């Protein structure tokens, strides 16, 4: 009865195809399975590769219905979709740890920070919560990764959505730093940066720079998805 009343006020719709009556429909479940069957998780890289990009693994391609699900989760307040995305990020995290040979010992999971404008608009840090869920869903390993929101935005940046590769690199250059309270935590540690989507790689490259400057001894990255690049689809090929 409670669910029926909630549906009258906030009607349920599938985050993938907007079909009414369900948060995630069977058709989108099958479509997501087809994305998984394409070969993910895989090591990915945009084309061109930005300087300083850490080795990066993604669960799959940034195609529908995953594209729509990420948009609904991040920009439309559909935090319920985190339960769908977290296991995908967990798979990418596990692939990054295995691919880097980081099977044991301490590793920090570091969420890519949102801009101050995005934080004000959303009133929360959705990637931090997604990281918590993914950490809980990831296979257990010796020296289980510790979630550490160590990165912070130290200057104003423009919205990245409509920027190209060069513009994103200029926009983010020098924009991130390790927060002072995490300086002693990052120094001497291996860090795994997590994000929802890798597009040009500018965010991950800047995050890696900030972590290395703070003394991180190794940086890799994991994302839910990677966009398909036109020049040979390099963003979705294993390297």
Sheet bearing the most strands, described?
Answer: 6 strands, mixed
The overall strand count is: 8
Number of helices: 9
Q: Beta-strand level of the residues, as a percent range?
A: 15-25%
* Chain-averaged pLDDT: 83
Could you state the order of secondary-structure elements as H and E?
HHEEHHEHHEEHEHEHE
Helix content class: 25-40%
- Could you give the distance between the termini? 52 Å
Major sheet: arrangement of strands: 1-2-8-7-3-4
- Structural shape: globular
Which structural category do the helix and sheet elements fall into? alpha/beta
Radius of gyration: 18 Å
Name the poorly predicted regions.
Answer: 1-9, 230-239
Protein architecture, described:
It is a single chain. The chain has 239 residues and is an alpha/beta fold. It is built from 9 helices and 8 strands. It has helices at 2-9, 26-36, 66-75, 82-100, 116-122, 126-137, 165-172, 183-186, 202-213; strands at 42-44, 56-61, 107-111, 146-147, 151-153, 176-178, 190-198, 218-226. The strands form 2 sheets. Strands 1-2-8-7-3-4 form a 6-stranded mixed sheet, with helices on both faces. Strands 5-6 form a two-stranded antiparallel ribbon. The longest helix has 19 residues, at 82-100. The chain is globular and about 50 Å long.
């Amino acid at each position: 009865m409670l669910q029926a009343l909630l549906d009258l006020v906030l009607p349920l719709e599938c985050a993938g195809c907007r079909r009414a009556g369900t948060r995630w429909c069977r058709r989108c479940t099958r479509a997501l399975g087809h994305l998984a069957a394409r070969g993910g998780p895989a090591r990915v890289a945009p084309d061109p590769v930005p300087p300083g990009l850490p080795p990066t693994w993604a669960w799959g391609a940034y195609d529908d219905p995953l594209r729509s699900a990420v948009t609904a989760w991040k920009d439309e307040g559909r935090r319920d979709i985190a339960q769908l995305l977290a296991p995908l990020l967990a798979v990418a995290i596990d692939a990054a740890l295995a691919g880097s040979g980081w099977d044991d010992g301490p590793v920090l999971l570091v969420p890519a920070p949102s801009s101050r404008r995005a934080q004000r608009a959303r009133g929360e840090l959705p990637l931090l919560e997604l990281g918590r869920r993914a950490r809980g869903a990831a296979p257990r390993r010796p020296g289980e990764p510790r979630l550490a929101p160590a990165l912070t935005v130290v200057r104003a940046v423009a919205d990245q959505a409509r920027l190209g590769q060069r513009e994103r690199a200029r926009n983010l250059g020098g924009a991130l730093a390790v927060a002072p309270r995490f300086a002693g935590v990052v120094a001497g540690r291996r860090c795994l940066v997590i994000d929802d989507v890798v597009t040009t790689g500018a965010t991950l490259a800047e995050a890696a720079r900030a972590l290395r400057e703070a003394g991180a001894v190794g940086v890799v990255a994991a994302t839910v998805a990677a966009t398909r690049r036109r020049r040979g689809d390099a963003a979705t090929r294993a390297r």
